Amino acid sequence: MNMDYKSQVRKRTEKLRSSLAPGDRIQREQRINEHLIAWLQAAIAGDGIRASGRTALSLIGETAQDPPVFSGNVTGTPPNGMDSIRTNEESTNLAQTKADQSDESAARSARQEELESPVFLAYVPFRSECDIKPVIEACWETGIRVYVPRSIYSTRELKFYEIHSWSDLEEGMHGILEPNRGNEILSDLLAVTAVLVPGLAFDRSFGRLGYGGGYYDRFLEQLLIACGKAEKKVPPLLAAAFEIQLADDLPMEAHDIRLDVIITESGIYTRT
């Protein structure tokens, strides 16, 4: 694709996106978020993937159940003198052991549940991009794990880190919010359930025009290679965009990767 043409498309699309009236933008974003949440729910249900989120009520109910404490006498042992002290110590130790075992079992169960949870690769919206924060918050509420990218400028690549709240973000280069380095990094590309890819323009054949840095192109190539080596299906690649970002045709190069789903305020477009 001609670089001048790319530049023209980027400028035109950014101008259109930035010119949306506040009220109109809010309504469009609300519909996009509704469609995206619906798509995620359907995709997870269709793949048999379990969203393992728990409500505050269930957590309160679980933490309110204390492990049984065995105290008092052992049958046949008189409650006096050293025997009584020893009996109480043994009972306390037994209770503590059972409590520790219960805690360890609960921790293992919670970790296993977390590992089985869907993994959604998203991004923090910047400037005039569609605000998809409600989708990320909905994921947190339903137990879908959310990872967002941190740019490594020296190698021009992306590293994804899990975030649990907006406080897990910090301002990076160009004012873009990025995850803290202390958060858990995505180490297994095969665990990814779906990838939300940002972009400036998209076409009817599911081509994408990014911002020119090539960061996502490199990451998506890594993802495809990893899935190919493991003979595993590539997770769906999707975009959330305003209808005004769609073009009839964007010339694609041989290495460009097409998306599977484009979600706009008008509906959900799926590549067949």
TrEMBL record:
This is 5-formyltetrahydrofolate cyclo-ligase. SUPFAM superfamilies: NagB/RpiA/CoA transferase-like (SSF100950). InterPro entries: FTHF_cligase, FTHF_cligase-like_sf, NagB/RpiA_transferase-like. It is an enzyme of class 6 (ligase). Keywords: ATP-binding, Ligase, Magnesium, Metal-binding, Nucleotide-binding. It catalyses: (6S)-5-formyl-5,6,7,8-tetrahydrofolate + ATP = (6R)-5,10-methenyltetrahydrofolate + ADP + phosphate. The lineage of its organism: Bacteria, Bacillati, Bacillota, Bacilli, Bacillales. Residues 1-22, 68-110 are annotated as: Disordered. It comes from Paenibacillus lutrae. NCBIfam families: MTHFS_bact. GO terms for biological process: folic acid-containing compound biosynthetic process; tetrahydrofolate interconversion. Its cofactor is Mg(2+). Belongs to the 5-formyltetrahydrofolate cyclo-ligase family. Residues 90-99 have a biased composition (Polar residues). Its EC number is 6.3.3.2. PANTHER family: 5-FORMYLTETRAHYDROFOLATE CYCLO-LIGASE, ATPASE INHIBITOR/5-FORMYLTETRAHYDROFOLATE CYCLO-LIGASE. GO terms for molecular function: 5-formyltetrahydrofolate cyclo-ligase activity; ATP binding; metal ion binding. Pfam families: 5-FTHF_cyc-lig.
